[in-house]
Amino acid sequence: xxxxxxxxxxxxxxxxxxxxxxxxxxxxxxxxxxxALLLFIPLKVQLGGVSVSLGFLLCLFVSYFYLGKFPWKxxxxxxxxxxxxxxxxxxMNELIRIDPVVLIFDRxxxxxxxxxxxxxxxxxxxxxxxxxxxxxxxxxxxxHLYRSNLTExxxxxxxxxxxxxxxxTVSSCYWIFSQVIRxxxxxxxxxxxxxxxxxxxxxxxx
Length: 206
Prior knowledge:
Oligomer: single chain
Keywords: Membrane, Transmembrane, Transmembrane helix
InterPro entries: YphA_Bacsu
Order of helices and strands: HHEEHHHHH
Strand content: under 5%
Transmembrane segments: 6-21, 26-43, 49-68, 75-96, 102-122, 129-146, 158-177
Shape: globular
Number of strands: 2
Structural class: mainly alpha
Radius of gyration: 23 Å
Pfam family, one: YphA
Number of helices: 7
Distance between the termini: 84 Å
């Protein structure tokens, strides 16, 4: 069912953000953004005769706002990575259209694999999820422009947001898991390097 993953994973992310994160400004911003996204997804606007989801525009704004914090000299590699992710998303969509036999597997899973492989190969750290999302967003726009004469699909459909939710969730969970393992390793290493305590004993016969 279209929209199942985005709403299920979206509400799960909101619960984690609201009840498990520390009470900081970041938690409030994340919680508000997730709720706004879930609210705006079904709302559509017409831009130049094209129907676009408000949730799609919100995702673009958040992604661009994050990239805007990068110095200009450091934007080349994120742009290159975003382009590769967008191309992988478009190619898999075209493969599914040309050869429907591949749909013996779930369509959402098929569409998530190439972007995830590209993102894990080219990026690392917490920025991976943002760059992955931005690549998919641009891929959706380019795919719509390429197929403009074939279909009148909405930019930012439920099917797209399902793919976006799965890829970002996998990327974020991997980062969180890697951070937990890294911190655990640091603690174990710190414990192993602790000096052995020497008992303070006084020899009565000295």
